[in-house]
């Protein structure tokens, strides 16, 4: 049994400013920051990494006053939103927050780019410090394997209270174009596999190498993504000097007590320059049979997974439009209540990868991608998120992302291919999607 000591202090500071003020001394960094909702977790340092959360218990307290230990073992697995011992989580009793960043295809033997390959294979990572902004308030959480020393908490508290307003930095860069001829050949292979009946849909990706005019930090890109016009959830995972980050619109799964939400997101058109243009593009997207078919594969898979491990499943029959800064998508929200005993990690594994990022059937599409794509995607399109000590949390699909080391990086984007897809149009669609991660370089 691993015992974790968690101390939570309510704070007033802006969590992003606090993160920027504290981050310098920490090479391990973790961010899950929903730009639209108070679901913001920013972790620094690594207290412990665990393969599973079943053998964990924690003592949580406000300041130095720890409460009686909670048996986290069951709590992480329980289908209830209450603390593991059945007591409701009160006030500042914010459970410890574990981060989890998972690769798109963890068993793909092909090499990832050199930056992505440098990350360790760890499952659940508990930071030493987590800055939290959620429906309970804003907190500074300090996690430890021994009782938390009050002086240490006080020092972090002072730094958080004195955090200056963050500053944005624009970073000039160039992108090395990827080969159009290689893309055309990949499209041909994908369309041949579809024509042969091997898959109905496959989601091909492109990656581009980026070189910056001067060194940049993970903080620079994080601040630009959070304060810029990209919509969605900002993700960051830094290990030593290398970091993976981006801003994704795609929720994979959210669990709060027995309430589960997911999102079917597939089918794309440009955002449009004016409201009128954007509405016309959205109407055409809704009416387009090819995009509706691409979308339906995702709806069917997510509904069937939820119908197996949940009840009260609600997935509307007609999609809506999600309008983002650079593109618009067809999107269908999904809601359900989870069967007792099914954990958030179980849900994540059952749902991921969806046909939105792999194809249909999923296993066949993954195998096809291993042979068509010349690289391993690493965390791109993987399931990335957090789980707290009550077993609640969420995972997003790591789209609109890249991996960087301070002077260069790799950016990734993909799109769904079905019968009749056109190589030039799909290439351009990925170009639009790449703009989101590239916007991290503009202040
Ligand atoms: C694969 C990506 O996006 C996915 C593919 C989409 C599509 O093919 O229309 C739309 C949204 C995402 O599910 C990406 O952004 O890289």
Report the radius of gyration as a whole number of Å.
22 Å
Q: Roughly how many Å apart are the termini? A: 46 Å
Q: What is the general shape?
A: globular
Number of domains: 2
- What hetero molecules are bound to the protein chains? the ligand C=C(O[C@@H]1C=C(C(=O)O)C=C[C@H]1O)C(=O)O
Main beta-sheet strand count, sense and barrel state: 14 strands, mixed
How much β-strand is present in the residues? 25-35%
Task: Determine the mean pLDDT.
Answer: 93
Taking pLDDT < 50 over at least 5 consecutive residues as the criterion, the unreliable ranges are 64-68, 71-92
**Portion of residues within helices:** 25-40%
Architecture per CATH nomenclature, i.e. the level-2 architecture of the largest domain: 4-Layer Sandwich
According to CATH, what is the topology of the largest domain? Anthranilate synthase
User: Structural class of the helices, strands and pairings?
Assistant: alpha+beta
CATH class of the largest domain: Alpha Beta
Could you name the CATH homologous superfamily of the largest domain?
Anthranilate synthase
Number of continuous helical runs: 10
Find the count of extended strands (DSSP E, 2+ residues): 24
Describe this structure in words.
The chain has 443 residues and is an alpha+beta fold. The chain has two domains: 2-161, no CATH class; 173-215 and 254-378 and 390-441, Anthranilate synthase (4-Layer Sandwich). Helix content is 27%, strand content 34%. It contains ten helices and 24 strands. The chain has helices at 15-22, 72-77, 150-161, 180-195, 218-227, 275-287, 289-309, 344-351, 362-372, 423-438, and strands spanning 2-10, 29-34, 40-44, 48-50, 56-62, 65-66, 97-101, 124-126, 129-134, 137-144, 173-176, 201-212, 233-239, 242-248, 251-256, 259-270, 310-314, 320-323, 327-338, 359-360, 383-388, 393-397, 401-404, 408-418. The strands form three sheets. Strands 1, 2, 3, 5, 6, 9, 10, 11, 12, 13, 14, 20, 23 and 24 form a 14-stranded mixed β-sheet that branches. Strand 9 (129-134) and strand 10 form a beta hairpin. Helix 1 (15-22) crosses helix 3 (150-161). The longest helix has 21 residues, at 289-309. The termini are far apart. The structure holds the ligand C=C(O[C@@H]1C=C(C(=O)O)C=C[C@H]1O)C(=O)O.
